[in-house]
Specification:
This protein has about 425 residues and is mainly beta. It has three domains: about 60-145, Sandwich (Immunoglobulin-like), CATH 2.60.40; about 150-250, Immunoglobulin-like, CATH 2.60.40.3710; about 250-400, L,D-transpeptidase catalytic domain-like. The chain contains five helices and 28 strands. Strands 22-21-20-28-23 form a five-stranded mixed sheet, with no helix packed on it. Strands 1-3-6-5 form a four-stranded antiparallel sheet, with no helix packed on it. Helix 1 runs parallel beside helix 2 (about 35-50). It is elongated and about 110 Å long. The N and C termini lie far apart (about 95 Å). Residues about 1-35 have low confidence and may be disordered. Keywords: Acyltransferase, Cell shape, Cell wall biogenesis/degradation, Peptidoglycan synthesis, Signal, Transferase.
């Protein structure tokens, strides 16, 4: 054989071998008359057999693998079609297990509790189809960070019983620029059918109340559907919660600084009259409708914390065991027991630095004092109306005191 013919023969053999390799790798093409089709057919049969062994179960994990800023409430979930879930494992990046539950029909799974912010999670799921063939899926994602989310701290507490003046007050930990979007995610309703309107005092605080005090015995429901709501650019809500509280008996107390008497009314009828000592002429008590926001059997009152200091910068008073104290304003107005003043001042002289004082004994253990009686018969959310002090009306946002704004003004502060 000449060298020329030998080279042509080798080239033909090489081309044939190359064709076989291509067909084997791709499992495609028609059978070749030169003999390569036998290998191709065998490869097709192997692939077909492998496909027949693959589970028909289709697992879907949310959020999408690699997601960031995921919701801590709703995003994490596993579902399956054409099969049932047999195992789902969720852990933090450091391997801490996250509890969850597969649904009764074994087609879905969700975490049992709210996730943590700024945390990376890993999810792995296994499912089987009707033939018992297993399918697997894995994903990881990171939840929204504190810097990119906001939370609203609300009052009153879920399940509590409060007075008729208690507004729903929400303080956000980030300034809200899209107030309308956030307000649309918050609803407040009353079983008494009263219209409830929310009012923004500033970018961080929104209070909600009806035109008149809540109806006695009604139930108020607050729903926060803020998950994923963009409150400011790049800052999203994470809360999804329903809160209910009950309105107790209708108690409104009237403090008259001129007569130095306090009338406690229930359903409009006076149930007790108590002598008081309000703010002195130099330190008058605010006037207006004030709501009890906190109660302390005993607490410390330091004048320096509210601007009452002497020439040395020390507080004009510092009483570490003030009994039966109930807060009326953020700025430091209280109605409280007074054991250090002469008993003769109550009902006859206004001597305080702006609080409303009632006769009491040291230690707050004498249930027979006027202060103890009022403390025991008061709820968070009860209204105390202070009159005839000669001072200005308290600002509506100084405490829970939005009742000092008329209904038209209140509604004007709504963003929706």
């Amino acid at each position: 054989m000449t060298n020329s013919k030998r080279r042509k023969g080798l080239a033909a053999a090489s081309a044939l071998l190359g064709g076989v390799l291509v067909l084997s790798a791709c499992s495609g093409g028609d059978d070749d008359a030169s003999g390569g089709g036998g290998d191709a057919s065998q490869s097709q049969q192997v692939d077909k057999a492998a496909a027949e062994k693959t589970s028909e179960a289709q697992i879907k994990i949310t959020p999408k693998n690699g997601s960031s800023n995921a919701s801590i409430n709703n995003d994490a979930a596993v579902t399956v079609s054409e099969g049932t879930l047999t195992e789902v494992k969720m852990t933090t990046a450091d391997g801490t297990a996250v509890s969850g539950e597969i649904s009764a029909d074994k087609t879905s799974w969700k975490p049992s509790a709210q996730l943590e912010r700024a945390t990376k999670y890993k999810l792995s799921a296994t499912a089987e189809d009707s033939e018992g063939r297993a399918a697997h899926e894995n994903s990881s994602f990171t939840t929204v960070s504190p810097d990119n989310s906001f939370i609203g701290t609300f009052t009153p507490d879920d399940g509590s019983t409060v007075g008729v003046g208690m507004p729903v007050s929400i303080n956000f930990d980030k300034a809200i620029s899209d107030k309308a979007a956030v307000q649309k995610g918050i609803t407040v309703t009353s079983s008494g059918g009263q219209e409830v309107v929310c009012h923004w005092f500033n970018a961080n605080r929104m209070d909600c109340r009806p035109d008149e005090y809540w109806q006695e015995g009604s139930t108020v429901t607050l729903k926060l559907a803020l998950d994923g709501v963009e409150g400011a650019e790049g800052v999203y809500g994470v809360q999804q919660k329903t809160v209910t509280f009950k309105i107790g008996r209708n108690q409104v107390t009237y403090v008259d600084a001129k007569t130095k008497q306090m009338k406690v009314t229930q359903d409009g009828k006076t149930v007790k009259t108590i002598p008081i000592s309000a703010g002195s002429p130099d330190n008058k008590t605010y006037e207006g409708q004030m709501v009890i926001s906190e109660k302390y059997k005993e607490t410390r009152m330091d004048g320096s914390t509210v601007g009452f200091t002497d020439d040395d910068g020390k507080g004009e008073y510092d009483i570490k065991d003030v009994p039966h104290a109930m807060r009326l304003s953020t700025s430091g107005t209280f109605v409280h027991g007074n054991y250090w003043g002469a008993k003769s001042i109550f009902g006859s002289a206004n001597t305080s630095h702006g609080c409303v004082g009632l006769s009491d004994t040291k230690g707050a253990n004498d249930s027979g004092t006027p202060a103890a009686w009022f403390y025991d018969h008061s709820l968070i959310g009860d209204v105390v109306v202070v009159q005839n002090t000669g001072d200005k009306t308290i600002a509506p946002d100084n405490g829970l005191n939005g009742w000092n704004m008329d209904w038209a003004q209140w509604k004007a502060g709504s963003a929706v």
